[in-house]
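ok new one. same drill as before - C-alpha coordinates go in, u give me an amino acid for every spot. 435 of them this time. try not to just spam alanines like last time pls lmao
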Protein backbone atom coordinates (compact mmCIF):
# COMPACT_ATOMS: atom_id res chain seq x y z
CA UNK A 1 0.00 0.00 0.00
CA UNK A 2 1.23 3.52 -0.60
CA UNK A 3 2.55 5.70 2.24
CA UNK A 4 -0.49 7.94 2.55
CA UNK A 5 -2.85 4.99 2.63
CA UNK A 6 -0.64 3.28 5.23
CA UNK A 7 -0.69 6.34 7.46
CA UNK A 8 -4.45 6.75 7.08
CA UNK A 9 -5.18 3.10 7.77
CA UNK A 10 -2.69 2.66 10.60
CA UNK A 11 -2.88 5.97 12.34
CA UNK A 12 -6.23 7.62 11.60
CA UNK A 13 -8.54 4.90 12.82
CA UNK A 14 -9.69 3.33 9.57
CA UNK A 15 -9.16 0.10 11.44
CA UNK A 16 -9.97 -3.35 10.15
CA UNK A 17 -12.54 -4.88 12.50
CA UNK A 18 -10.90 -8.25 12.61
CA UNK A 19 -13.04 -11.18 13.65
CA UNK A 20 -12.21 -12.98 21.29
CA UNK A 21 -8.62 -14.16 21.11
CA UNK A 22 -7.45 -17.25 22.84
CA UNK A 23 -5.50 -20.41 22.40
CA UNK A 24 -2.10 -21.04 20.92
CA UNK A 25 -0.97 -20.43 17.37
CA UNK A 26 -1.25 -23.62 15.34
CA UNK A 27 1.78 -24.06 13.08
CA UNK A 28 1.45 -25.80 9.74
CA UNK A 29 4.52 -26.44 7.58
CA UNK A 30 3.55 -25.58 4.01
CA UNK A 31 6.86 -25.99 2.21
CA UNK A 32 9.90 -28.16 2.81
CA UNK A 33 13.59 -27.47 2.36
CA UNK A 34 15.59 -29.73 0.06
CA UNK A 35 18.79 -31.11 1.55
CA UNK A 36 17.54 -31.02 5.14
CA UNK A 37 19.74 -33.04 7.51
CA UNK A 38 18.19 -36.37 8.63
CA UNK A 39 17.97 -36.57 12.42
CA UNK A 40 16.15 -38.77 14.93
CA UNK A 41 15.01 -37.35 18.27
CA UNK A 42 13.85 -40.20 20.48
CA UNK A 43 11.05 -39.29 22.92
CA UNK A 44 12.79 -38.60 26.23
CA UNK A 45 12.43 -41.30 28.89
CA UNK A 46 10.97 -40.66 32.35
CA UNK A 47 12.40 -41.76 35.69
CA UNK A 48 12.46 -40.70 39.31
CA UNK A 49 9.64 -39.67 41.62
CA UNK A 50 6.33 -37.97 41.01
CA UNK A 51 4.26 -37.69 37.88
CA UNK A 52 5.83 -37.08 34.46
CA UNK A 53 5.14 -33.78 32.68
CA UNK A 54 2.03 -33.53 30.54
CA UNK A 55 4.17 -33.49 27.38
CA UNK A 56 7.41 -35.08 26.21
CA UNK A 57 10.36 -32.72 26.01
CA UNK A 58 11.92 -34.76 23.22
CA UNK A 59 8.85 -34.20 21.07
CA UNK A 60 9.12 -30.43 21.57
CA UNK A 61 12.80 -30.56 20.61
CA UNK A 62 11.93 -32.52 17.47
CA UNK A 63 9.18 -30.07 16.51
CA UNK A 64 11.54 -27.12 16.99
CA UNK A 65 14.22 -28.63 14.77
CA UNK A 66 11.69 -29.49 12.08
CA UNK A 67 10.26 -25.94 12.10
CA UNK A 68 13.70 -24.56 11.33
CA UNK A 69 13.64 -26.16 7.88
CA UNK A 70 17.22 -27.36 8.38
CA UNK A 71 16.36 -30.87 9.57
CA UNK A 72 14.28 -33.83 8.41
CA UNK A 73 12.89 -35.63 11.46
CA UNK A 74 12.39 -39.39 11.64
CA UNK A 75 8.79 -40.30 12.53
CA UNK A 76 8.42 -42.06 15.87
CA UNK A 77 6.66 -45.03 14.31
CA UNK A 78 9.70 -45.65 12.11
CA UNK A 79 12.15 -45.89 15.01
CA UNK A 80 13.60 -49.37 15.53
CA UNK A 81 14.45 -48.67 19.18
CA UNK A 82 13.97 -45.98 21.80
CA UNK A 83 17.19 -45.72 23.81
CA UNK A 84 17.58 -43.22 26.64
CA UNK A 85 21.21 -43.99 27.61
CA UNK A 86 24.38 -44.11 25.52
CA UNK A 87 24.92 -47.80 26.33
CA UNK A 88 21.57 -48.62 24.67
CA UNK A 89 22.39 -47.06 21.30
CA UNK A 90 23.00 -49.40 18.36
CA UNK A 91 24.34 -47.12 15.65
CA UNK A 92 23.76 -49.66 12.88
CA UNK A 93 19.99 -49.38 13.45
CA UNK A 94 20.07 -45.62 12.89
CA UNK A 95 22.43 -45.91 9.92
CA UNK A 96 19.98 -48.34 8.34
CA UNK A 97 17.31 -45.66 8.66
CA UNK A 98 19.52 -43.10 6.92
CA UNK A 99 19.96 -40.88 9.95
CA UNK A 100 22.94 -38.55 10.22
CA UNK A 101 22.35 -37.66 13.86
CA UNK A 102 20.55 -39.03 16.90
CA UNK A 103 19.29 -37.35 20.08
CA UNK A 104 18.37 -39.28 23.22
CA UNK A 105 17.40 -37.98 26.64
CA UNK A 106 15.91 -38.59 30.05
CA UNK A 107 13.80 -36.50 32.42
CA UNK A 108 13.86 -37.44 36.13
CA UNK A 109 11.52 -36.25 38.87
CA UNK A 110 13.54 -34.76 41.75
CA UNK A 111 10.67 -33.95 44.07
CA UNK A 112 7.62 -31.66 43.93
CA UNK A 113 7.92 -29.36 40.94
CA UNK A 114 11.59 -30.14 40.29
CA UNK A 115 13.19 -32.09 37.40
CA UNK A 116 16.56 -33.06 36.05
CA UNK A 117 17.12 -33.40 32.31
CA UNK A 118 20.01 -35.00 30.47
CA UNK A 119 20.47 -35.47 26.73
CA UNK A 120 23.11 -36.62 24.24
CA UNK A 121 23.59 -35.75 20.57
CA UNK A 122 25.38 -38.36 18.43
CA UNK A 123 26.98 -38.44 15.01
CA UNK A 124 25.47 -41.69 13.76
CA UNK A 125 27.95 -42.54 11.00
CA UNK A 126 31.01 -41.86 13.12
CA UNK A 127 29.43 -43.41 16.17
CA UNK A 128 30.57 -40.43 18.22
CA UNK A 129 29.05 -38.26 20.92
CA UNK A 130 28.92 -34.63 19.80
CA UNK A 131 27.18 -32.98 22.74
CA UNK A 132 25.97 -33.96 26.21
CA UNK A 133 24.28 -31.75 28.75
CA UNK A 134 22.48 -31.98 32.08
CA UNK A 135 20.33 -29.40 33.87
CA UNK A 136 17.91 -29.06 36.78
CA UNK A 137 14.79 -26.95 36.45
CA UNK A 138 11.32 -26.23 37.84
CA UNK A 139 8.04 -27.34 36.28
CA UNK A 140 7.16 -23.85 35.00
CA UNK A 141 10.36 -23.96 32.94
CA UNK A 142 9.55 -27.16 31.07
CA UNK A 143 8.86 -25.76 27.62
CA UNK A 144 11.63 -23.19 27.92
CA UNK A 145 14.13 -25.95 28.74
CA UNK A 146 12.98 -27.94 25.71
CA UNK A 147 13.58 -24.89 23.50
CA UNK A 148 17.04 -24.41 25.05
CA UNK A 149 17.91 -28.01 24.23
CA UNK A 150 16.82 -27.47 20.63
CA UNK A 151 18.90 -24.27 20.50
CA UNK A 152 22.01 -26.14 21.68
CA UNK A 153 21.53 -28.92 19.12
CA UNK A 154 20.86 -26.45 16.32
CA UNK A 155 23.99 -24.45 17.10
CA UNK A 156 26.18 -27.55 17.39
CA UNK A 157 25.07 -28.85 13.99
CA UNK A 158 24.80 -25.58 12.05
CA UNK A 159 27.32 -23.31 13.74
CA UNK A 160 24.58 -20.70 14.13
CA UNK A 161 22.70 -19.83 17.34
CA UNK A 162 19.19 -21.22 17.56
CA UNK A 163 16.09 -19.07 17.94
CA UNK A 164 13.65 -21.51 19.53
CA UNK A 165 13.77 -20.03 23.05
CA UNK A 166 12.23 -16.78 21.81
CA UNK A 167 8.80 -15.18 21.67
CA UNK A 168 6.66 -13.40 19.13
CA UNK A 169 4.51 -10.35 19.80
CA UNK A 170 1.39 -9.84 17.70
CA UNK A 171 -1.97 -8.08 17.66
CA UNK A 172 -5.17 -10.10 17.56
CA UNK A 173 -8.82 -9.19 17.62
CA UNK A 174 -12.25 -10.66 17.32
CA UNK A 175 -15.71 -9.25 16.75
CA UNK A 176 -17.61 -8.82 19.99
CA UNK A 177 -21.01 -8.83 18.29
CA UNK A 178 -21.66 -5.42 19.82
CA UNK A 179 -19.87 -3.11 17.43
CA UNK A 180 -16.22 -2.57 18.31
CA UNK A 181 -13.94 -5.64 18.27
CA UNK A 182 -11.97 -6.88 21.25
CA UNK A 183 -8.31 -6.16 20.54
CA UNK A 184 -5.25 -7.57 22.32
CA UNK A 185 -1.50 -7.30 22.16
CA UNK A 186 -0.16 -10.75 22.95
CA UNK A 187 3.14 -12.57 23.15
CA UNK A 188 3.65 -16.31 22.69
CA UNK A 189 6.55 -18.72 22.48
CA UNK A 190 8.06 -18.99 19.02
CA UNK A 191 6.26 -22.33 18.57
CA UNK A 192 2.90 -20.66 19.27
CA UNK A 193 2.40 -21.95 22.83
CA UNK A 194 1.94 -20.05 26.11
CA UNK A 195 0.12 -16.98 24.77
CA UNK A 196 0.10 -14.07 27.22
CA UNK A 197 -2.05 -10.95 26.90
CA UNK A 198 -0.01 -7.80 27.47
CA UNK A 199 -2.80 -5.29 26.98
CA UNK A 200 -6.39 -5.50 25.74
CA UNK A 201 -8.68 -2.78 24.52
CA UNK A 202 -11.77 -1.85 22.55
CA UNK A 203 -9.56 0.59 20.66
CA UNK A 204 -6.95 -0.29 18.03
CA UNK A 205 -3.49 -1.49 19.08
CA UNK A 206 -0.64 -1.70 16.61
CA UNK A 207 3.08 -1.61 15.85
CA UNK A 208 4.47 -3.76 18.71
CA UNK A 209 8.26 -3.56 18.99
CA UNK A 210 10.45 -5.54 21.40
CA UNK A 211 13.16 -3.80 23.42
CA UNK A 212 16.66 -5.25 22.86
CA UNK A 213 16.60 -6.88 26.32
CA UNK A 214 13.24 -8.57 25.65
CA UNK A 215 11.69 -7.12 28.80
CA UNK A 216 9.57 -4.33 27.31
CA UNK A 217 7.38 -3.71 24.31
CA UNK A 218 6.65 -0.37 22.67
CA UNK A 219 3.33 -0.09 20.85
CA UNK A 220 0.68 2.33 19.60
CA UNK A 221 -2.72 2.57 21.31
CA UNK A 222 -5.70 4.62 20.18
CA UNK A 223 -7.24 5.08 23.64
CA UNK A 224 -9.58 8.08 23.84
CA UNK A 225 -9.43 8.36 20.05
CA UNK A 226 -5.84 9.60 20.22
CA UNK A 227 -2.89 7.58 18.85
CA UNK A 228 -0.20 7.44 21.55
CA UNK A 229 3.04 5.50 21.94
CA UNK A 230 3.48 3.45 25.11
CA UNK A 231 6.27 1.32 26.56
CA UNK A 232 5.10 -1.60 28.72
CA UNK A 233 7.09 -3.97 30.92
CA UNK A 234 6.23 -7.59 30.15
CA UNK A 235 6.61 -8.98 33.69
CA UNK A 236 4.97 -6.23 35.75
CA UNK A 237 2.52 -4.72 33.26
CA UNK A 238 3.77 -1.24 34.20
CA UNK A 239 3.55 1.12 31.26
CA UNK A 240 4.74 4.58 30.31
CA UNK A 241 3.34 6.97 27.73
CA UNK A 242 6.20 8.43 25.69
CA UNK A 243 4.43 10.32 22.89
CA UNK A 244 0.91 11.68 22.55
CA UNK A 245 1.15 14.80 20.43
CA UNK A 246 -1.69 16.14 18.28
CA UNK A 247 -1.83 14.17 15.03
CA UNK A 248 0.22 11.07 14.27
CA UNK A 249 2.23 9.21 16.90
CA UNK A 250 3.36 5.92 15.41
CA UNK A 251 5.92 3.35 14.27
CA UNK A 252 8.12 3.06 17.40
CA UNK A 253 11.55 1.45 16.90
CA UNK A 254 14.16 0.77 19.60
CA UNK A 255 17.81 1.71 19.27
CA UNK A 256 20.18 -1.28 19.73
CA UNK A 257 21.23 -0.05 23.19
CA UNK A 258 17.59 0.32 24.31
CA UNK A 259 18.08 3.96 25.33
CA UNK A 260 16.29 5.68 22.43
CA UNK A 261 13.11 5.26 20.47
CA UNK A 262 12.63 6.35 16.87
CA UNK A 263 9.05 7.23 15.95
CA UNK A 264 6.87 8.97 13.38
CA UNK A 265 5.29 12.23 14.57
CA UNK A 266 3.27 14.88 12.74
CA UNK A 267 3.35 17.38 15.60
CA UNK A 268 5.09 19.90 13.33
CA UNK A 269 2.56 19.44 10.54
CA UNK A 270 4.01 16.64 8.41
CA UNK A 271 4.93 13.05 9.36
CA UNK A 272 8.67 12.96 10.06
CA UNK A 273 11.15 10.74 11.89
CA UNK A 274 11.99 11.78 15.47
CA UNK A 275 14.27 10.17 18.07
CA UNK A 276 13.26 10.24 21.73
CA UNK A 277 15.88 9.78 24.47
CA UNK A 278 14.26 7.61 27.14
CA UNK A 279 16.62 8.77 29.87
CA UNK A 280 16.74 12.52 29.32
CA UNK A 281 13.31 12.92 27.71
CA UNK A 282 14.78 14.99 24.88
CA UNK A 283 13.34 14.76 21.36
CA UNK A 284 15.41 15.15 18.17
CA UNK A 285 13.92 15.62 14.71
CA UNK A 286 15.81 13.62 12.06
CA UNK A 287 13.87 14.30 8.86
CA UNK A 288 12.13 17.42 7.64
CA UNK A 289 10.36 17.01 4.31
CA UNK A 290 6.94 17.63 2.80
CA UNK A 291 6.69 13.89 2.03
CA UNK A 292 5.66 11.21 4.52
CA UNK A 293 8.68 9.76 6.37
CA UNK A 294 7.83 6.78 8.57
CA UNK A 295 8.77 3.22 9.68
CA UNK A 296 12.31 3.86 10.90
CA UNK A 297 14.61 0.92 11.75
CA UNK A 298 18.07 1.11 13.34
CA UNK A 299 21.18 -0.58 12.00
CA UNK A 300 22.63 -3.20 14.40
CA UNK A 301 25.46 -0.86 15.40
CA UNK A 302 23.09 2.10 15.85
CA UNK A 303 25.06 4.37 13.53
CA UNK A 304 22.34 4.82 10.92
CA UNK A 305 18.74 3.94 10.21
CA UNK A 306 16.49 3.21 7.27
CA UNK A 307 12.96 4.49 6.81
CA UNK A 308 10.07 4.57 4.33
CA UNK A 309 9.41 7.74 2.38
CA UNK A 310 7.36 8.71 -0.67
CA UNK A 311 9.53 11.76 -1.35
CA UNK A 312 10.36 10.27 -4.77
CA UNK A 313 6.70 9.77 -5.73
CA UNK A 314 6.28 6.21 -4.48
CA UNK A 315 7.29 4.76 -1.18
CA UNK A 316 10.89 3.55 -1.11
CA UNK A 317 13.57 2.83 1.46
CA UNK A 318 15.99 5.58 2.44
CA UNK A 319 19.04 5.62 4.70
CA UNK A 320 20.39 8.36 6.95
CA UNK A 321 22.90 8.66 9.79
CA UNK A 322 21.39 8.76 13.27
CA UNK A 323 23.45 11.90 13.86
CA UNK A 324 21.53 13.56 11.01
CA UNK A 325 22.34 14.49 7.45
CA UNK A 326 20.86 14.05 4.01
CA UNK A 327 18.93 10.81 3.38
CA UNK A 328 20.02 8.52 0.55
CA UNK A 329 17.65 6.27 -1.38
CA UNK A 330 18.43 2.53 -1.14
CA UNK A 331 15.63 0.69 -2.98
CA UNK A 332 15.03 0.90 -6.71
CA UNK A 333 13.57 -2.51 -7.65
CA UNK A 334 9.85 -3.35 -7.52
CA UNK A 335 6.86 -1.05 -7.82
CA UNK A 336 7.38 0.22 -4.26
CA UNK A 337 9.11 -0.85 -1.04
CA UNK A 338 8.35 -0.24 2.64
CA UNK A 339 8.67 -1.44 6.26
CA UNK A 340 12.36 -2.39 6.12
CA UNK A 341 14.38 -3.79 9.02
CA UNK A 342 17.91 -5.13 9.33
CA UNK A 343 19.16 -8.68 9.49
CA UNK A 344 21.09 -9.36 12.71
CA UNK A 345 24.40 -9.22 10.82
CA UNK A 346 23.48 -5.90 9.20
CA UNK A 347 24.13 -7.16 5.67
CA UNK A 348 20.56 -7.21 4.39
CA UNK A 349 17.12 -5.73 4.84
CA UNK A 350 13.79 -7.53 4.95
CA UNK A 351 10.98 -5.41 3.54
CA UNK A 352 7.56 -5.30 1.96
CA UNK A 353 7.93 -5.11 -1.81
CA UNK A 354 5.13 -4.48 -4.28
CA UNK A 355 5.13 -6.78 -7.28
CA UNK A 356 2.63 -7.34 -10.09
CA UNK A 357 0.98 -9.97 -7.84
CA UNK A 358 0.59 -7.64 -4.86
CA UNK A 359 2.63 -7.17 -1.72
CA UNK A 360 5.33 -9.73 -0.96
CA UNK A 361 8.24 -10.15 1.44
CA UNK A 362 11.60 -9.32 -0.07
CA UNK A 363 15.23 -9.52 1.03
CA UNK A 364 17.56 -6.72 -0.05
CA UNK A 365 21.30 -7.27 -0.18
CA UNK A 366 22.79 -4.00 1.04
CA UNK A 367 26.01 -4.45 -0.88
CA UNK A 368 24.35 -4.80 -4.30
CA UNK A 369 20.91 -3.29 -3.69
CA UNK A 370 19.27 -6.35 -5.28
CA UNK A 371 15.93 -7.51 -3.88
CA UNK A 372 15.04 -11.21 -3.82
CA UNK A 373 11.31 -11.91 -3.45
CA UNK A 374 10.70 -14.65 -0.85
CA UNK A 375 6.91 -15.04 -0.89
CA UNK A 376 4.27 -15.35 -3.57
CA UNK A 377 2.76 -11.99 -2.77
CA UNK A 378 -0.71 -10.62 -2.39
CA UNK A 379 -1.13 -9.42 1.18
CA UNK A 380 2.23 -10.16 2.83
CA UNK A 381 3.42 -7.42 5.17
CA UNK A 382 5.15 -6.38 8.46
CA UNK A 383 8.13 -8.76 8.27
CA UNK A 384 10.44 -9.36 11.23
CA UNK A 385 13.70 -11.34 11.44
CA UNK A 386 14.31 -14.17 13.89
CA UNK A 387 17.20 -13.14 16.18
CA UNK A 388 19.54 -15.59 14.44
CA UNK A 389 18.60 -14.28 11.00
CA UNK A 390 17.48 -17.68 9.66
CA UNK A 391 13.73 -17.06 9.38
CA UNK A 392 11.36 -14.16 8.79
CA UNK A 393 7.88 -13.91 10.28
CA UNK A 394 5.21 -11.77 8.62
CA UNK A 395 1.47 -11.14 8.40
CA UNK A 396 -0.65 -12.44 5.54
CA UNK A 397 -4.21 -13.43 4.68
CA UNK A 398 -5.55 -16.95 4.70
CA UNK A 399 -8.88 -18.45 3.81
CA UNK A 400 -11.84 -16.07 3.92
CA UNK A 401 -9.40 -13.17 4.22
CA UNK A 402 -8.56 -14.23 7.78
CA UNK A 403 -5.41 -12.61 9.15
CA UNK A 404 -2.63 -15.12 9.81
CA UNK A 405 1.08 -15.13 10.52
CA UNK A 406 3.52 -16.94 8.30
CA UNK A 407 7.26 -17.58 8.31
CA UNK A 408 9.76 -18.13 5.53
CA UNK A 409 13.44 -19.06 5.58
CA UNK A 410 15.85 -16.44 4.27
CA UNK A 411 16.49 -18.58 1.19
CA UNK A 412 12.73 -18.73 0.52
CA UNK A 413 12.62 -22.54 0.44
CA UNK A 414 10.96 -23.34 3.77
CA UNK A 415 7.54 -21.95 4.72
CA UNK A 416 5.04 -22.32 7.55
CA UNK A 417 1.71 -20.82 8.65
CA UNK A 418 0.76 -19.79 12.20
CA UNK A 419 -3.01 -19.69 12.62
CA UNK A 420 -4.95 -18.47 15.64
CA UNK A 421 -7.62 -20.91 16.77
CA UNK A 422 -10.13 -18.08 17.11
CA UNK A 423 -9.86 -14.62 15.62
CA UNK A 424 -7.34 -12.93 13.39
CA UNK A 425 -3.70 -12.12 14.04
CA UNK A 426 -1.37 -9.56 12.50
CA UNK A 427 1.67 -7.28 12.99
CA UNK A 428 4.21 -9.79 14.36
CA UNK A 429 7.55 -8.85 15.90
CA UNK A 430 10.12 -11.52 16.81
CA UNK A 431 11.77 -11.09 20.20
CA UNK A 432 15.51 -11.26 20.90
CA UNK A 433 16.75 -14.48 22.46
CA UNK A 434 15.39 -15.05 25.95
CA UNK A 435 17.81 -15.62 28.83
Amino acid sequence: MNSMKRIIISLLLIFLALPLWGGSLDITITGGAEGATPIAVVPFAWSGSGQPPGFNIGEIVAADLERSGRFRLLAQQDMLARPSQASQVEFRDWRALGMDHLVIGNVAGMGPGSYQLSFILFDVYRGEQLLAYEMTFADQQLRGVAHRVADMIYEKLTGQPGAFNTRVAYVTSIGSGQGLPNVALQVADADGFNPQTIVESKDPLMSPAWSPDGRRIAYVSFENNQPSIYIQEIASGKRRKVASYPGINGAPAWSPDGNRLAMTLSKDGNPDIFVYDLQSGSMKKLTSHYAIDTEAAWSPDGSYMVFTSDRGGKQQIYRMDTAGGEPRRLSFEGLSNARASFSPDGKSLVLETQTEKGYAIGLMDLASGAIRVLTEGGYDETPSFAPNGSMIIYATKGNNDKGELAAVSVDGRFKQRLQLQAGDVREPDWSPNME
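The longest helix spans residues 142-158. and btw Helices lie at 3-11, 57-67, 91-96, 142-158.
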